[in-house]
UniProtKB/TrEMBL annotation:
The gene is atpF. In plastids the F-type ATPase is also known as CF(1)CF(0). F-type ATPases have 2 components, F(1) - the catalytic core - and F(0) - the membrane proton channel. F(1) has five subunits: alpha(3), beta(3), gamma(1), delta(1), epsilon(1). F(0) has four main subunits: a(1), b(1), b'(1) and c(10-14). The alpha and beta chains form an alternating ring which encloses part of the gamma chain. F(1) is attached to F(0) by a central stalk formed by the gamma and epsilon chains, while a peripheral stalk is formed by the delta, b and b' chains. The keyword Thylakoid applies. The lineage of its organism: Eukaryota, Viridiplantae, Streptophyta, Embryophyta, Tracheophyta. PANTHER family: ATP SYNTHASE SUBUNIT B, CHLOROPLASTIC. It comes from Melicope vitiflora. Its main location: membrane. This is ATP synthase subunit b, chloroplastic.
């Protein structure tokens, strides 16, 4: 190969730097260069078939495209599943939120009702306690008044009664008790 390129190099005429003009050298023109490159490729590339290389390259590209499409389809499917799960979770979260709010409202209502009932009961207990204490105070006052009245009456009776009046009162009371006993029997 070195001999072939050396022969071409020796044939080429190199123009001086900075010169401008029409290139009449046939080897320096593009069609000749292309035909030489194609000839070299054909001569050295007999064992390599360009169509096989292109077919292999085409197969690799198609396989890559197929793999990419499969990956894309899998990714799209996973994305749809994730979106469906997200929608499901959002719906469940909304349901939990609504249930939570309604549960809070129900607990608040129950708490208010039970507190109101407890307050009513405490008010009733307070009123009953006040009435009981008033009744007890009234009874104590009555007992004191009765005791004082009884002591005053006994004092008056003792001072006013003599023995004879006292005996007559006792015998009258005994007679009344006897009459009551006869009525009962």
């Amino acid at each position: 190969m070195k001999n072939v390129t050396d022969s071409f190099v020796s044939l080429i005429h190199w123009p001086f730097a900075g010169s401008f003009g029409f290139n009449t050298d046939i080897l320096a023109t593009n069609p000749i260069n292309l035909s030489v490159v194609i000839g070299v490729l054909i001569f050295f590339g007999k064992g390599v078939c360009v169509s096989d290389l292109l077919d292999n390259r085409k197969r690799r590209i198609l396989n890559s495209i197929r793999n990419s499409e499969e990956l894309q389809d899998g990714a799209v499917e996973r994305l749809e599943k994730a979106r469906a799960r997200l929608r499901k979770v959002e719906i469940e979260a909304d349901q939990f939120r609504v249930k939570g709010y309604s549960e809070i409202e129900r607990e608040k209502f129950n708490f208010i009702n039970s507190t109101s009932k407890t307050l009513d009961q405490l008010e009733n207990y307070k009123n009953e306690t006040i009435r009981f204490e008033q009744q007890r105070a009234i009874n104590q006052v009555r007992q004191r008044v009765f005791q004082q009245a009884l002591q005053g009456a006994l004092g008056t009776l003792n001072s006013c009664l003599n023995k004879e009046l006292h005996l007559r009162t006792i015998s009258t009371n005994i007679g009344m008790l006897g009459a009551m006993k006869e009525i009962i029997d």
